[in-house]
Amino acid sequence: MRRVARRADGWLPVHVPEWGRFDPAAVTEPMARIRDLAEEPGRDRSDLDAILRVYPGSSGSRDGVFDTVASAGDAGIGHVFVELMNPADTVEEALEIVDRVLRAARN
Q1: Whether pLDDT at 81 is above 90
Q2: Closest CA to 48 of 35, 37, 36, 61
């Protein structure tokens, strides 16, 4: 956390839907600590951001992806990266997932 606070532009937390529901506190609490640590060397805490990485393992976790994206805003996350290699077998399926992810993000 200290290294992130001193050197990085932000933090890249990971959520795997198969491991359970996304808890915004899993991001907000560590991010608050990183921002506090950033003030020690004189950095502006608002310069640090988080990008949530979501790694679904199979098509069965799609609903977990949509729920995670929809609740990311509760953690103050404005950017989410969703890995689509595992839950989609075809390009068409991946595009359908992207459409649902975007709809979840807009709600």
Answers
A1: yes
A2: 35
